[in-house]
Write a structure and sequence with these properties.
It is built from nine helices and 15 strands. It is of the alpha+beta class. It has a four-stranded mixed β-sheet with strand order 10-11-15-14. A three-stranded mixed β-sheet has the order 1-9-8. It has a two-stranded antiparallel ribbon with strand order 2-7. β12 and β13 form a beta hairpin.
Length: 375
Amino acid sequence: MVADFYELLGVGRDASEDDLKKAFRRLARQYHPDANPNDADAEARFKEIALAYETLSDPQKRAHYDRFGTAPGAAGGGEPFSGMNLSDIFDAFFGGSSPFGGSPFGTADRRGRTGPQRGEDLEAVLALDFTEAVLGIDAEVRVRTATVCESCDGRGAAEGTEPVVCGACGGRGQVQRVRQSVLGQMVTRTVCDTCSGRGEVIANPCRECRGDGRVVGDRSYTVTVPAGVSQGSTLRVARRGAVGPRGGPPGDLYVHIDVRPHPRFERDGDHLVDRVHLSMAQAALGVNVKYETLDSVEDLDISAGTQTGDVFRIRGRGVPRLEGRGRGDVLVQAMVETPTGLSKEEIDLLRQLAELRGEEVAPTTRKRRREARRK
């Protein structure tokens, strides 16, 4: 459990804002991780001190703590770094940096220069036929992107010249400033404005890329679309984005999938849904039909007495599952069609069938006329 915040800072409960600041300044210098490398106890102590100051320096949080004994939003006495912003604290005291030249958390990159800048991520839309999306395909995607300048091989310098060490930062990519404060001598490091942290500048830029090390143009990539992708899916193609300036690594390419509708099939998760049209006789007596899926021909047995809306399942011929475990099914819904344009012989046969089954049907046209004259 974290100790009492007032005790941590070494102040009384009536401490003023200035008292809190002075206590925090003193303790931050003593326990900061940069002053105590590889000391887990000092780092934990520093976090507790920072949380204590962050809580007590805010009137509303202090009132909450005085009443309940915990930092707002923390349970059981407060967890270090629960809802706080150490950057704001160090900005107030040390100009956004730690008093030891590192970051507030002791994780600054001590190599100096920031390294090559990563290129931009790109986006593209890939239109696919329904079958291509279900079964998968290798498709070509064309994007406008930044590629390595061939004239300077990405260095940004004109032919026969080389980048030179930045005179402002001496090749470190950072500039260091020393100033005096109430805590003594403070050292801050910031990215060099002259070279943007690269540690070198180009005196004679390449004419093709004007020193950027890259040129903009159209480029095509082959994208492997896995079987089973759906409308609106996004594929990430690593390192196929724009290259970074002056040798920086490329970003990624994000391909958004747009699936065209199919004339027969609709998709329901991993299943494909279709309809089969049957004549009255086929539905009544049953039939075996050759049914075409997206990638095969299957025997579909229609049982006798099938009604409109009945569903027949063809297993394992639907959409391949993205995780690679089998496929969904094809669900075929029966649609029984009522015959029209009947010949006299067909009408007579149907009437005989209705009579055999004891079903009432409309009278013939001639019979309806006789009944109408009688009325």
